[in-house]
Amino acid sequence: xxxxxxxxxxxxxxxxxxxxxxxxxxxxxxxxxxxxxxxxxxxxxxxxxxxxxxxxxxxxxxxxxxxxxxxxxxxxxxxxxxxxxxxxxxxxxxxxxxxxxxxxxxxxxxxxxxxxxxxxxxxxxxxxxxxxxxxxxxxxxxxxxxxxxxxxxxxxxxxxxxxxxxxxxxxxxxxxxxxxxxxxxxxxxxxxxxxxxxxxxxxxxxxxxxxxxxxxxxxxxxxxxxxxxxxxxxxxxxxxxxxxxxxxxxxxxxxxxxxxxxxxxxxxxxxxxxxxxxxxxxxxxxxxxxxxxxxxxxxxxxxxxxxxxxxxxxxxxxxxxxxxxxxxxxxxxxxxxxxxxxxxxxxxxxxxxxxxxxxxxxxxxxxxxxxxxxxxxxxxxxxxxxxxxxxxxxxxxxxxxxxxxxxxxxxxxxxxxxxxxxxxxxxxxxxxxxxxxxxxxxxxxxxxxxxxxxxxxxxxxxxxxxxxxxxxxxxxxxxxxxxxxxxxxxxxxxxxxxxxxxxxxxxxxxxxxxxxxxxxxxxxxxxxxxxxxxxxxxxxxxxxxxxxxxxxxxxxxxxxxxxxxxxxxxxxx
Length: 573
Prior knowledge:
The chain is an alpha+beta fold. The chain is built from 19 helices and 19 strands.
């Protein structure tokens, strides 16, 4: 980048001494906490559990979570790419790019955020942090391999003025055209942005930027300074700005903290692609929120209708004036486990494109991982993509029948029978991997055949069918209890424990207090062998099937995260 009258200050930031910075912040106290956390941390890498352990609210989660880097982690961005990052924030993505060996010019308008980014990248010689309003900078032409806008384009009019930018759409096209000029002929623009039609907004989540209900669906009637876009609007704006090659990816639950990414071809060509996002849940970042809207079933319905991409909560868009986008990725679907697993055993699961191969790998190098547990064994195995419906999704649909639970009980009985066979088959000389045969680890094919997959964890504690059955049903109910208020109102099953007792009774089994104590003790220990926070199966059994309540009170920041077993979307080892 040309110097633009920029000078390097003592914090290592390039800026014009006359520039006062842009007033954009999560709050002085929140950003001071983030700065202190990063400045004092020994491990500031993109996979740092040290930083993860300091998360206390939504701003610190957004800036410190290792999940931030998942957005770009699976892509092949080349070696030592020249990258221009617009709006780098507090440097979570910048850090990942720099430690991957790329040369990054990271622009941030807020001086405090630029200082945090400089601290996060303090050991990376290839990262330059520039504090400026990017609309005031002169950029070299055909200089960069990549231009990044991660959570930036929605503010285009705020930061990219001028006579030609009369509307949000004008500003968007102007900034895209300016970015295109900085790219080499085969360069690529990468943008992450919320979908204005995202499913979360239809079900009552507040709009992420304004905190208002339905604001993006109403066309931002109250918010002239911010605007997100639909898939069609983004594609049209990119085409109008000179990008002839455009590819869409869909990060779930959204681009901020993605655990799963699907590519566009995958959802078009695989009827049951929604199985890959069954365990994700939309989040409201403004307030506490719960709903009886059964999100996994809706994703399935949207996929069957060819609309999943139109209603994904976020887009990750790759665009090039003439380059080949296919060289940048080799996957249809990629999913990440939490980085905070004990023993550094975080994993990536990748379904390769144009293949049914599913490849699983560790995120951390061998010298940074190891399972020091006498009760649990861990294995990674490559496999193949199995087309069909998840048993978990089928059971959830049966459970949502408010009149009759006959199909629900029939599926749970068949699951026990199937699980019994897996328990026998997956016993090794040292551990039983059948206990990891959770309801979301079983595919029901169109033929009706059931097939298990991804049996990653083996119990060295003696494992019976009944104990594994108990464990996996409790985890399933912990994840879906919010949707099942009618279990109490219609069927007299007031708690998860009531439901387990009924299921066991239908199978001719009894759950005595002694049996429950035994099962809960072993299940708690197996979970804690992987998770850093203790969870309680007994507490999960006491969870009530209350009607979902949605607080109408705005609160920033959102509360600290709950233990994984009891949190929506958590609990599976």
